[in-house]
Amino acid sequence: MKLNEFLTSKNVDSGLAELVELLAEQSQTIKRGFLGHTEDVAGTINIYGEEQLVLDKWADEVIVSSLQKSKLAHWITSEEQPEVIEIENAKHDFGITLDPLDGSSLIPVNLTVGTIIGIYPGEVLNPGKNMISAMYFLYGPLTTLTISIAGGVHDFVLDRNNEYILQKENLTIPDGKIYASGALRKDWLPPHITYVSQLEEEGYKLRYSGSFVADVHQILHKGGIFSYPAYKGKESGKLRLLVEANPLGKIVTDAGGAISNGKENILDVMPTAISNRTPIYIGGKKEIEQIENIVKKAA
Ligand code: P6P
Fold this sequence. Notes:
By secondary structure, this protein is α+β, with helices and mostly antiparallel strands.
């Protein structure tokens, strides 16, 4: 079943369906555009103080301009934009959160990267639990779309006719023994050190690529936990609340998993700024309960 047929079969609101299909088209433009720019730096930095690649800004421009032209959304916050973009005379009030090319530094070494999108019914400076949909595109051996919409999480793969075809409906996260952890081991804080040693004791295998969206996709399909913890000198961690944690947190939660900052469900957190970062634990409920118990005991 094609993406548009699936959205129709689920009686998805026509405005939301049109928006999802527009974003699916942009993903194909992005995938085709990698050749030729893989390592070029743009000579600018984003709001997180990180150097932007030409590809980061180009992918951002592809999606932002398509939204501005179509007027299918009212608000956009992007990892590559200094502030929220308001679209005048928008047809719908949707608010979009966007990480246009998560893991872009891995393109020169041909590892999987992706685009992460969250959709709010209105303004984006709201808790992740208010999102009405969330999705990500993965550019790897396959080009895929994973989306939480119409009460479930569903996987699509791009076929030879450039159509996203349904692969799996109502995905649920299985039990599994994979873990991923960012930050330098020497900078981990005691609760995280305890957690990782417990996981390894229980036979969890390390799988960490440097692409949040690709690593979480593996956890969603094989089970386990991804973490980018608070660490020495960075108690808020590295990853971004609005454009990374919330959309993937919604998807994994809607697939029966959970997301936490070690103390509470990240989807309940009220953002104070579009630049908010957060420590992240995302994956199986069991693994989330385990880290929250360790943090509670250490308090
Ligand atoms: P580190 C990519 O830059 C990213 O934002 C995430 O996709 C990824 O999980 C993380 O940073 C990797 O960070 O510190 O391991 O390079």
